[in-house]
Design a protein that fits this description.
Blueprint lengths: L4 H28 L2 E10 L5 E12 L15 H10 L1 E10 L4 H4 L4 H6 L4 E8 L6 H16 L12 E2 L11 E7 L6 H9 L15 H5 L3 E10 L10 E12 L10 H4 L6 E2 H5 L12 E8 L1 H15 L17 E3 L5 E4 L7 E6 L12 E4 L12 E8 L5 E10 L1 H9 L6 E10 L3 E3 L5 E4 L2 E3 L5 E7 L8 E10 L4 E10 L15 E3 L3 E9 L12 H7 L2 E6 L3 E3 L7 H26 L2 H30 L1 H6 L4 H34 L1
Parallel strand pairs: 1-10
Antiparallel strand pairs: 1-2, 2-8, 3-4, 3-7, 4-6, 5-6, 7-8, 9-14, 10-13, 11-14, 12-13, 15-16, 16-23, 17-22, 17-25, 18-23, 19-20, 19-23, 21-22, 24-27, 25-26
Helix pairs in contact: 14-16
Bound molecules: 2-acetamido-2-deoxy-beta-D-glucopyranose (3 copies).
Length: 671
Amino acid sequence: MALSPKATLPISLLLLLLLHLPILFSTTVSGGEEEFSEELLLKPLPDRKLLTHFHFQSEAPITHDGSFATHHHLFPKAISQLVRKFHIKAMELSFTQGRWNYERWGGFDPISSSNAKPPGVELWAIFNVPPHQVDAYWKNLTHALSGLFCASINFLESSTSYSAPKWAFQSALGSLRYGTLPREAVCTENLTPWLKLLPCRDKAGLSALMDRPSIYRSFYHSQRLHLTSSSAGGDVLNSRIILEQTLTVVLQPNIPRAGMNYVSETNIQPSWSLSSIFGRKLNGRCVLAKSSTVYLQLERGLVTQLENLQKDTAVFSANDTGSGDFRRNVGFELSVNPSKVHTEMEKSYSILFEYPIKEYKDSEQFDLGLTWKHPLVWSSPHAPLYASRFLTGSGNERGAIAISLKSTESTQGFVATNNEERCKLQVDILQIVPWYIKVYYHTLQIFVDEKPQAVKDFVERMRVSPSEDKVSPGMMELVLKFPCETKSAVLNIDFDKGFLHIDEYPPDANQGFDIPSAIISFPEFHAGLRFSDNATSESPLLSKLQEKSHVLSYSEVLLVPLTTPDFSMPYNVITITCTVFALYFGSLLNVLRRRVGEEERLLKNKDANKGLLYLALTKLSAKLRGRSSESAQPLSPSSSSSSSKSSISPKLVLKVLLVAGIAVAWQYYSQ
Ligand SMILES: *[C@@H]1O[C@H](CO)[C@@H](O)[C@H](O)[C@H]1NC(C)=O
Ligand SMILES: *[C@@H]1O[C@H](CO)[C@@H](O)[C@H](O)[C@H]1NC(C)=O
Ligand SMILES: *[C@@H]1O[C@H](CO)[C@@H](O)[C@H](O)[C@H]1NC(C)=O
């Protein structure tokens, strides 16, 4: 089609403009130095499950006067306003459903140390304000977050529900406040506002994979928002605020029900693909993201097993492809070839396959799949001590909390590397209890290898702030040092159960009361992967995985039954009293209003009227029945009335039966 030169000129101008638009856009983005990246980590877990970990990071610079630029391209404005208004130095908010299984899913890797969270809501924040103002800021912050995330975070406002740990948790950062709501139900209404903070929401990029039924059907899901400002280093000019949003989901891939060789297939790991676990494929990346990458991680234990398998099969095939080449390996098959493979520098190493999403065009969809070819059994690395917590005692008066620590294979490794005379293992414990659990801190007992021991031999430091009724919760911070060869240790502490006022009970008081998770950390152990190449520092997720964070685990939430009043009793009393009153006043009014003389006259009138009324009724019924009434005309009124009665009564009986039938059916189906 030939166009006149006059027509081509505006078109070419338009084209020029269109061509330059992306350049203009990108310069403004890089000029504002706001960055956003999206990443997804997939990791097969030993118990036939799959860990999916979404990681989104937004960064924005802070201007010289300490505030942000008022306009943001990528960074969520709601968060920047929050930071500015409440002078937040660091903050973390997590919503979790389910419990991280430290035994099966591991407790010695960056994901479990920083993304395994206690059930319900956990919030901590560090403020950049004078110490006496911190509580006021915390209260206002809980209200702001409550509105932002459609959750009852505002319950953390009450001084009975938060505390200020000094050194057992996130130490040396400043004025910290910490609070949890173990009973908060987490649902999609909390995820939607969280997704709204992303520049592409869940419309494009990796977040488009977030299929709500798959996420909420999972064994564990935790959505987290972590905020830090890097101005702590003192360099005011280059300070930045970093918002990290993660969603960690543990899913069970669908197990195909192939019947043929069922016995041999029971041990093989279930094969999966992105489309089979989330029900959709990846259409492309979020265009606003600086990097958009999918990673597949194979744990150290799994890599060791794969190598063993490789060696076994290499006997049969003389062609040894080498341990580094996992693309053509015997253990499993990947549907897409990775563009890069990161390996750790350790003796036993983990492997990370990298898939940059920018290479996938809109027409072709990205769907990473993994098919297992051989059954493999491995285990995830465990924390030095496996911690669990339980209640002892019975009755409604008193009980005891016990924290049990059991050594795992990591402890033995630690002993091997530190084979000095007096090797010690440090354990920090933070335990917060609500005020109605009155803990007697002097009753702390320690059993090491099932023998009672003096507390001062093992407790290095201890800080206790006892609870105050209806004012503040009790808190205990402990630093324990155990000899490395310790097999097990149990801490036991007694408590009395308190009484609550009737309006302090939660709606379902008979369920019991929750004691928040204890935090158990191992400051001498660092979870972190060590990759050999330098390129990994470009990716926020990889630098997060390489960060040396403390190994940390949360204990179970305990459910304590307290004495609860019988809440149905007041209602029974109220209903009975009301009935009695109604009967009394009803009969009283009846007696008071009755006039005997009047009534007698009325009765007489009624007798007189009855005949008239009767006649009128029979006439009406006769008219209604039309012709049949004419045949009945000659009959006496008494016989006609009896015939009318006999004609009406079957209908009545039918109606009554129908209503009864409906009632019975209703009763039957509504049960
Ligand atoms: C907290 O909110 C209240 C009510 O809106 C306000 O009066 C108070 O000044 C706020 N305090 C801080 C520290 O922001
Ligand atoms: C090993 O296999 C590769 C391709 O699979 C082939 O090119 C190579 O010649 C083989 N080497 C030996 C020693 O068989
Ligand atoms: C990684 O970076 C360090 C310095 O930052 C450099 O000495 C080293 O050679 C780099 N290694 C690779 C493999 O590029």
